[in-house]
């Protein structure tokens, strides 16, 4: 299928190189590069990035994802401080910290994530922090460890409609991902919860709306909806390009369901304009 005009993006190589060199110097990873994000040029131009911690090797093998699957390395005890220093050097106002899934660790890496959040906030007290976590195998105690570190937003992506899980992400469980969101609300009601999913994988329009209703039932505050783009020919085949008008319709439907903020467009990704989502949600809470 020919890529439509609405999916064509600009690319600022100078900005990409600047942030990439900083990440290399501090031995840090960004999910922007690992996941081959189409917004990499735009976000790097604004000196924003989503940091990916706990290495670059994921223990799961999802057919939509470009992050490498393999044997993870040992956790780097210096990583939390290095990341905090990078945030300060980039003069960020909002930080998104994600992780590779670490099923090899008893706590799924929750203690390391919590230590990273604390390090960032200690060195950058005015910065707001969003964590984008794995399902932690449904471990509520591990989830509590992350929430106790004080993130402003707890993000966990459901990724797709439940019918497609077995074929595309068989190591995940749809109900378990929903429970991460509902457990987060139960453990820390004041922390905003967020999730995202892709369309264009072969789902129906009714399945999309049912997914949105399931998510909203958890009390989730923020939602992102994006176009699936296959990273390579070896990944799950894209079913269709979804029009910008349908993304607008889904945004409106989500707001009608009660989400405080919905980012819905072909190039949206889970951390795209994350600070804007947080600010919008805060305004709606105040109102």
- For the record, give the distance between the C-alpha atoms at the N and C termini, rounded to a whole number: 44 Å
Count, helices = 11
CATH homologous superfamily (4th level) name: Aldolase class I
The domain count comes to: 1
Q: CATH fold name, please?
A: TIM Barrel
According to DSSP, the number of beta strands is: 8
Described by the principal axes of the CA atoms, the overall outline is globular
- Which ranges are low-confidence, i.e. pLDDT below 50, for 5 or more consecutive residues? none
Q: What multimeric state do the chains show?
A: single chain
- Sheet-strand content, in percent, reads 5-15%
Radius of gyration: 18 Å
Main sheet specs: 8 strands, mixed
Helical fraction equals: 40-55%
Q: What CATH architecture do you see?
A: Alpha-Beta Barrel
Which sequence of SSEs, written as H and E, runs from N to C? HEHHEHEHEHEHHEHEHEH
Side-by-side strand order of the widest sheet: 1-2-3-4-5-6-7-8
